[in-house]
Predict the 3D structure of the following.
Amino acid sequence: MSKQAETARADHMPPLSPGGRMVAEERRLQIVKVAMRLFSERGFRGTTTKEIAHAAGVSEAIIFRHFATKEELYAAIIDHKSCAGFGAGPAGEESGHPVIDTIRACVGDAMERRDDREVFRQIALAMMEHHSRDHEFLRLLLYSALEGHQLAQIFWDKNVRVLYEFLGGYVGERQREGAFRDVDPFLVVRAFNGAIIHHSLNKILWERDAARRLVNVPAEEAAREFTEILLRGIVAETGAGASSLRREKRPKRDAGESGAAKNKKKKR
């Protein structure tokens, strides 16, 4: 085994129990984390249980002692990712769904105050920070969609659908209150969610190389700007929505240039 592989294995090894052996739950979590890394690199079909066992430093028999099938292991990974959420831990009343609870903990107060700008800004920021520190999540999302197996439905149910229903429900409430224009709530969520995911994917896939960096702004500023773009499109211009259109004061950027503009100057 290469030194790099040994390091990767060590990174996923949980601490031993006082007796020197892993308890069942620790071993299960270790297998989930190792499998998660391999699935995110090679996809479900491109990863074997033998490879997972080797990377985890266990036998295949140990894998199947905890998970009856590879599909069951993949489903456990999706549960683990859903429980991890993308924000702070749940607070107050819980819905029983980890994704909803983490969103509610993040923006529950802002929703009650009907502070639309803060609701979308906080969710955008939490999503971008989650994507930035957890590239595996985005890779799993893409593999799940592209491979098209039945487990993609599990990922969709536990992550995509719940976000649409929860945030779409809030948009619908604000429409009934006269704050938002009559637009399909799910289209609003798609426009918002799509912008955030596209932004994160560009940063992860392309913009590690400064020469390809078209947008170079902090996550806080990107979240604020995406929120303003969205609200300008959906907020009603009269009645309950009028106050939401008053743009908040924001700090001016030192250099009002995009990454692309800076790159052009360098080439001259």
In short: Confidence is low (pLDDT under 50) at residues 1-17, 87-96. The radius of gyration is 22 Å. The domain at 87-267 is CATH 1.10.357 (Tetracycline Repressor; domain 2). The CA atoms of residues 202 and 208 lie 9 Å apart.
